[in-house]
């Protein structure tokens, strides 16, 4: 179980990450007014990142993870030229891959056989190779069938899988316990940042603080930071794609609460769970809600069968209590009387949002797309159509209707994540990916059964939640989901269990 004294000792790092991310976000907002600031800060970050990567690659990896955990699309800063935007996330990826590749080539020059055996020890090595083969095949087919531009820009998110190699280089040659502790601290700092940002946006928008909220809205859209949507009655949905990590943090934290015997830790975890529930509620994400509901049901079943009804009931009650507190916090924020608030928000708002058959533009467009994707996949069942495969359908999205009179929309990016993968990689490609994910979940479950260690239950549930979310919102073909899947690899090393041992 988690060593809370160990995490508490890391509080300075957690707070430093939180403060750093707030500062970065503030300067990103300033760059909305002063475009030259965007270029200057982008250049400084990338240059410092390069120096760190050359000097100590694991330090640069920490920065890369902080950016991934806290930012939705990676465009907090970007380099723009001729209509093309190079995001900070891609720039950091390019630097760390280049530095790792240089180190890799030097290692091969020194001892080719030793390097081969080192990387062959990556968990599920063969399965990774199978998946990479079908990704490469999808790219080749895509370029031939769909053209280089569409194929590459559809494929580039999958390049994030390449980070497994510098990650393995780091954990194979450094103190694994320290690395994991630092990763956990960065994750917690980023989660606190997402809570702070979502909380702040909810307050500002629900209290209609013009003209600030207009600038925040356009900054959020221009920099691809998330979605701020008026839901009626003065309530605003604050959805950041990176809030997927809020769901993951919730599943790991509820697992931690169940198995810790430290009463003080239980109180802290309840407070943390309530804040996480606050964010999940205001995200108004049906995908998150469904994934959370199904994984929690599975967790309750597991607890009942393995530990008895009482432990299951306790976990259910604490989950329910954290939801009630989280919902109360949302109400308290939106109805806070100063400076002014006339927001209408209650449980009916949640039930209306949970209706997947509602006559809403996004929902109706998604169901229309589903029928077309189903027919397209049946025609390209085996190998798929490759990356960049476009589908044309009639959309009810107001943003599409603004640009086209008839609402006909052509795109190679689909909300149905697993169907997107199937259409691009074919049945063999999606099976290779599905098998890899299945092995993660199965082996985390086996480790949990043998050790009763919450971290394995939490990680297994988290990956399962990504599987569910990916049915309706693409995450496992996006750096946010790919990054977490890769990071789960570090918990396979036996030496790495120390930061998560029980307290006695």
Give an overview in words.
- It is a single chain.
- By secondary structure, the protein is mostly helical.
- It has a domain at 34-117.
- Helix content is 71%, strand content 5%.
- It has 21 helices and six strands.
- It has helices at residues 4-9, 11-33, 35-55, 57-70, 88-110, 112-120, 125-146, 148-155, 164-173, 176-206, 212-222, 244-259, 263-283, 286-307, 309-334, 347-354, 361-379, 398-403, 417-451, 454-472, 479-487, and strands at 78-81, 84-87, 227-232, 235-239, 391-394, 408-411.
- The strands form three sheets. It has a two-stranded antiparallel ribbon with strand order 1-2.
- A hairpin with a 2-residue loop joins β1 and β2 (84-87).
- The chain starts with a helix and ends in a 17-residue tail after the last helix.
List the helices and strands and how they pair.
Layout: H1 4-9, H2 11-33, H3 35-55, H4 57-70, E1 78-81, E2 84-87, H5 88-110, H6 112-120, H7 125-146, H8 148-155, H9 164-173, H10 176-206, H11 212-222, E3 227-232, E4 235-239, H12 244-259, H13 263-283, H14 286-307, H15 309-334, H16 347-354, H17 361-379, E5 391-394, H18 398-403, E6 408-411, H19 417-451, H20 454-472, H21 479-487
Antiparallel strand pairs: 1-2, 3-4, 5-6
Helix pairs in contact: 2-3, 2-10, 3-4, 3-5, 4-5, 4-10, 5-6, 7-8, 7-19, 10-13, 12-13, 12-20, 13-15, 14-15, 14-20, 17-19, 19-20
What's the N-to-C terminus distance? Answer: 10 Å
Structural classification? mainly alpha
How much helix, percentage-wise, in residues? over 70%
Major β-sheet, in short?
2 strands, antiparallel
Mean pLDDT: 87
Beta content comes to 5-15%
Helix-strand pattern: HHHHEEHHHHHHHEEHHHHHHEHEHHH
Rounded to the nearest angstrom, the radius of gyration is 23 Å
User: In one word, what is the shape?
Assistant: globular
Task: Identify low-pLDDT runs.
Answer: 494-504
Q: What is the count of helical runs?
A: 21
Number of strands: 6
Q: Give the spatial strand order of the biggest sheet.
A: 1-2
């Amino acid at each position: 179980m988690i060593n809370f004294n160990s995490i508490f000792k890391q509080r300075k790092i957690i707070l430093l990450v939180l403060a750093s991310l707030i500062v970065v976000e503030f300067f990103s907002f300033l760059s909305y007014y002063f475009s030259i600031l965007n270029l200057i800060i982008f250049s400084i970050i990338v240059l410092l990142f390069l120096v760190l990567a050359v000097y100590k690659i694991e330090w640069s990896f920490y920065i890369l993870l902080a950016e991934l955990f806290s930012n939705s699309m990676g465009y907090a800063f970007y380099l723009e030229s001729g209509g093309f935007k190079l995001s900070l996330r891609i720039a950091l990826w390019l630097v760390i891959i280049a530095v790792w590749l240089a180190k890799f080539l030097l290692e091969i020059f020194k001892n080719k056989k030793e390097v081969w055996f080192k990387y062959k020890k990556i968990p599920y090595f063969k399965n990774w190779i199978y998946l990479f083969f079908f990704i490469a095949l999808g790219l080749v087919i895509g370029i031939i069938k769909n053209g280089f531009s569409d194929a590459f820009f559809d494929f580039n998110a999958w390049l994030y899988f390449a980070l497994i190699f510098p990650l393995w280089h780091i954990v194979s040659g450094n103190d694994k316990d320290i690395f994991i502790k630092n990763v956990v601290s960065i994750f917690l700092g980023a989660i606190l940042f997402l809570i702070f940002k979502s909380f702040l946006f909810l307050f500002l928008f629900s209290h209609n603080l013009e003209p600030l909220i207009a600038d925040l809205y356009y900054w959020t859209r221009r920099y691809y930071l998330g979605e701020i949507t008026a839901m009626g009655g003065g309530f605003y949905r604050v959805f950041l794609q990176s809030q997927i990590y809020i769901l993951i943090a919730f599943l790991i934290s509820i697992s931690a609460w169940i198995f810790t015997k430290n009463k003080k830790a239980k109180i802290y975890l309840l407070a943390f769970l309530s804040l996480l529930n606050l964010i999940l509620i205001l995200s108004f994400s049906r995908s998150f809600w469904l994934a959370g509901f199904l994984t929690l049901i599975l967790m309750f079943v597991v607890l009942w069968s393995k530990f008895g009804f009482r432990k299951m009931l306790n976990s259910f009650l604490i989950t329910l209590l954290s939801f009630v507190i989280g919902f109360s916090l949302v109400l308290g924020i939106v109805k806070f009387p100063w400076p002014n608030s006339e927001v209408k928000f209650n449980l009916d708002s949640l039930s209306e949002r949970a209706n997947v058959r509602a006559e809403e533009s996004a929902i109706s467009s998604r169901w229309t797309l589903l029928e077309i994707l189903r027919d397209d996949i049946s025609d390209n069942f085996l190998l798929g159509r490759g990356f960049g495969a476009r589908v044309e359908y009639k959309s009810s999205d107001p943003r599409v209707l603004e640009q086209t009179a008839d609402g006909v929309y052509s795109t190679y990016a689909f909300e149905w994540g697993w169907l997107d993968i199937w259409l691009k990689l074919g049945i063999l490609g999606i099976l290779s990916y599905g098998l890899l994910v299945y092995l993660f979940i199965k082996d985390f479950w086996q480790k949990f059964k043998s050790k009763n260690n919450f971290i394995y239950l939490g990680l297994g549930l988290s990956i399962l939640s990504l599987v569910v979310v990916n049915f309706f919102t693409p995450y496992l073909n996006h750096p946010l989901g790919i990054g977490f899947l890769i990071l789960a690899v570090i918990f396979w090393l036996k030496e790495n269990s120390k930061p998560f041992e029980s307290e006695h």
